[in-house]
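Re: flavin mononucleotide structure - here you go.
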Amino acid sequence: MRYLKDKNIVLGVSGGIAAYKSAELLRLIKKQEAKARVIMTANAASFIGPLTFEALSGNPVCTCLFEKGGNASIRHIEWAKEADAVVVAPATANIIGKIACGIADDALSTFLLAVTCPVLICPSMNTNMYEKISVLRNIDILKKDGYLIVEPDAGELACGTTGQGRLPEPEDIIERLISSLTPKDFKGKRILVTAGPTREHFDPVRYISNPSSGKMGYAVAKAAEQRGADVLLISGPTNLKPPANVETITTGSAKDMAAAVFDHVKDADIIIKAAAVSDYRPEEAAKQKIKKGKEETPVVLKKCEDILLKLGKNKESRILVGFAAETENLEENAKEKLVKKNLDMIVANLLDGKSSGFGTDTNRVVFFYRNGDKEQLPLMDKDMVAHVLLDRILEIGTRNLNERG
Ligand SMILES: Cc1cc2nc3c(=O)[nH]c(=O)nc-3n(C[C@H](O)[C@H](O)[C@H](O)COP(=O)(O)O)c2cc1C
């Protein structure tokens, strides 16, 4: 899905060492089929040449307020009028200070005074600079003034120090940009999402698990946050980075996951259970690593608590969505689970091991609803599946409200 397709995005580049990363950011903006324009400060041009941005954006780059030719003299106003979103990356301490004070002494700062669309500011600088009271105060002013701040990452910085101040990866900035343009139709909703596998240990170093990567649940959590929901993600062990602004609790076994879910269930209006929770666990887990010895070591498996079943029994007015991954009889199994667990809908998929299911970036799912309806979606990015799922949850919410009168 191209979330930024045909949107007018202006990239502002100021004179920080991370300016080289903004070339990659621009490439990703163009990959989303957005129309991109770039405004650079004079100092930014000391770090990276305007030609790079001109080639990547396919548009002339604005570096000077007083350029001659065309309608250059009012370019900052025209571009501001046409912009759907602006991202300043990297944003130096200097440009942050200028925006906070309403200073307009070059093309970028003047343009920023003229824009009315969402503006993302990506501060990036040496940690001591970032932690300076004046800089933090200016960032606070920007937040209060409605600018969207993309917090810098912590890590090793170009100046050799370690700490907060690093420009986030371009992929993460793109997610925040998409979020800035996403309608907040889940504002005020509290969503609990579970994701990933569970691990059922039979000794300290070995466990029974499944290949769930967590990608589907993380995509749902990310999409819900982008649409304004207050999201809690309860995740089994995965290699994924938690989505921005999503409170994430990491759990291990099905028992841990159940405890985390039941601790937070009261706060949720909507629960989406995308985790692949183990049905069985070894009855006993050895305290020490089991040594190789006998030819056979029987492991007795005991049923794990059925989290979804319990949630269904205590559903109240919550919307409850389950997932079913099947290797056969998809419709029959999914429908049975829907009824047995008192769900509003179930997202079912056949595990074909290629483009759909565990670990893939795409999924081919069927939605089954309480009223017997069924909806087959084509093969889609998991991000897109997440958005369609959220659309359907909104419809269920509206239907439930109407039914309650
Ligand atoms: C090598 C070098 C690296 C710099 N890196 C940064 C940086 O990462 N962040 C920052 O805020 N300033 C950085 N500065 C300082 C800015 O370039 C300086 O404050 C400048 O006035 C910013 O101008 P501008 O905001 O108009 O682009 C750096 C300066 C030099 C010489």
